[in-house]
Sequence to fold (375 residues):
Amino acid sequence: MPLDTLDALVRSNFTSLDGVTIDHTSFAQLTTLHLGGTPAATIRCATTRAVVDVVTLLDAHNIPLIIVGGGSNLVVADGELPVVAVVLECDAIAIDTTTGLVEVEAGAVWDHVVDLCVEQGLGGLECLSGIPGSAGATPVQNVGAYGVEISDLLTEVELYHRDSGKREWVAAADLELAYRYSNLKFTARAVVLAIRLQLYTDGLSAPIRFGELARSLNLPQSEAEARTNPRTVREAVLQLRGMKGMVYDENDHDTWSAGSFFTNPIVSAEQAETVRALVRTTFDDDTARRMPCFDVGDQRKLSAAWLIDRAGFSKGYPHEGAARLSTKHTLALTNRGNATTQDLVALAQEIRDGVEQKFGVRLHPEPVWIGVSID
Ligand SMILES: Cc1cc2nc3c(=O)[nH]c(=O)nc-3n(C[C@H](O)[C@H](O)[C@H](O)COP(=O)(O)OP(=O)(O)OC[C@H]3O[C@@H](n4cnc5c(N)ncnc54)[C@H](O)[C@@H]3O)c2cc1C
Fold:
């Protein structure tokens, strides 16, 4: 469908809906990478009812759409795109400090939710401080950081099923949440309208499982998985993330990213030993011994950041150019202010291929791609 027809169709059908506003904000303005062209229309929904109405109508007209929260996990093509961006701005938050039950609408800013819960004395979310984006996107890739994943606290999600038109609360278990995965990711089969969380009411944080965080909190090694003050943990996490450029800041190009660009590869135990042998040949015994490698059932999780660095792509690579690795973290691909999506894709390909040539491990991107691909 030509773009102007699409625009006219959207305007004639959607302008009268309650809680809906329409503009032409580009993906460069909607995403933390500040990349991507212009959608046929940008429809902002202030209520969950408006989200359901808009998605129902777009689907009825077979108009392609992309749900956008904070745009912090999106890589979008340059140019004009025959797709409507549906931006979720419904953001009610209900916190019950007696039971620890929290219900949040999808468009709420995630870090605001964490901050409010910590402020009201509830524990559990503090390790997920500083993750950009919306509450509704947290189940989509089962966000995680510093040893905690949203699956540890999520009990239910309210979904709008696009095929059946049904709106219902479903158990978190039905989403098959796993490392940076749910059955919502890459499928767009349903819209998350709201989430429910069960937090701790005893004034303590989630167990601290991440070594770097435990050290920064001065927790004794003998107290593995200790629980402590949620506010102190939140501050420590924000400080650690800040040093790595992992707290989004409009004024810092090191944070114009999608966070970790590649997921940590999960490989067989045999392949992990092959990689270790290659590291030994390329470097030395000591480097091979220290290669990060964690048990995940009978498989092994390697560190994408470590492999990228050892493949010769150091922080800031390629030290000039519009798209570069963050100067604070090898796993974040960044826009230095004037990059195009094509610049970013070229860098992503170079890094993925460089790691594969050196260690035989193929890295897979974590963000969702719209109108463009790494292959
Ligand atoms: C600096 C930085 C640091 C980051 N650190 C982390 C981290 O520590 N851990 C981590 O896991 N991630 C991290 N991320 C990635 C990102 O912040 C998370 O994945 C976040 O949950 C994305 O939320 P969003 O609202 O921005 O989603 P968007 O980018 O707007 O959307 C991402 C995908 O989810 C879909 N989606 C969004 N909302 C909904 C909804 N309500 N219903 C259905 N589908 C939806 C979109 O259609 C799209 O496919 C980081 C990103 C940045 C820029």
